[in-house]
Specification:
zinc; about 280 residues; 7-stranded mixed sheet; 24 strands; mainly beta; KduI_N; Jelly Rolls
Length: about 280
């Protein structure tokens, strides 16, 4: 499990492109036949990429967690960003079509991931955070999440937001998770930008065409920097950082948060005229 240590706004202000990418961009989560994990000390979140590639992969506890099982003191949300997948949690089988979400509660001991029998190409994105109690493992299909239509085509940010793990949906201790899809012709996500000092947010960009990129803005509103992000790359956004982006084509992204509270609208908007 790779570790990323916590940083402050001054780090971003002084960092060059390579340092920004090393600290905040996760470029290679999805490797065939592997489970890759990255731990950030911001709210102690763990990001994971799972690519069964014809195998059955078991979620083990890295030695650094000092736990008998991965979910001994943690919970996790899993979104399938590839072909049909099967997750088995303590003997219970869950079938995840593309963009389905599975919540795994604290205390689940045995978790495996595999391609569905009638498909291949499963790619699962896992986000985990410490948990103080146990909630039941729950599956939500893409059409069953809380759907919010946001933005406007005139400002190039018309998008469909699906909330999966949140206060009025799948219950959790810390993890809040969902997926946003931009409509054709829209390029901006989350505009105006915002911060929320009470929680860290991570984006996984998906459905980005091979010849397209997303320019992801981060840093303090008055001292922004950018990352150039490709398909299936993730960005760690500390609580003090804005997080917004514009693509050269429409795309989707999985957003996940952990921290002090779960209120989706608990954020501090930053007018674009106040950014620099």
């Amino acid at each position: 499990m790779e570790h990323r240590y916590a940083t402050g706004p001054d780090h971003v202000a002084r960092a060059d492109t390579a340092a920004l990418r090393d600290q905040y961009l996760v470029p290679d989560l999805f490797v065939p036949g592997e489970i890759r994990l990255v731990h950030t000390h911001h709210d102690r979140m763990v990001l994971g990429g799972v690519v069964p590639d014809g195998r059955t992969l078991r979620l083990e506890a890295p030695a650094d967690l000092r736990a008998g099982t991965f979910l001994e003191r943690r919970e996790a949300g899993v979104v399938n960003v590839g072909g049909p997948a099967v997750v088995v949690a303590d003997g219970e089988r869950y079938e995840l079509p593309t963009h389905a979400c599975l919540y795994l509660g604290r205390g689940v001991r045995d978790v495996t991931f595999a391609d569905a029998a009638d498909g291949d190409g499963a790619q699962l994105y896992l986000v985990s955070a410490p948990a103080h109690t146990a909630y039941p493992t729950t599956l939500v299909l893409p059409e069953d999440g809380t759907v919010r239509e946001l933005g406007d085509q005139e400002t190039s940010n018309r998008r469909t937001l699906r909330q999966y793990i949140h206060a009025d949906g799948i219950r959790s201790c810390q993890v809040v998770m969902g997926m946003t899809t931009l409509h054709p012709g829209s390029m901006w996500n989350t505009m105006p930008a915002h911060t929320h000092d009470r929680r860290t947010e991570c984006y996984l960009y998906v459905d980005v065409p091979q010849d397209a990129r997303v320019l992801h803005l981060m840093g303090r509103p008055e001292e922004t920097r950018h990352l150039v992000v490709a398909d299936r790359q993730a960005v760690i956004s500390p609580s003090w950082s804005v997080h917004t982006g514009v693509g050269t084509a429409a795309y989707s992204f999985v957003w996940a948060m952990a921290g002090e509270n779960q209120a989706f609208d608990d954020m501090d908007a930053v007018p674009v005229t106040a950014m620099a």
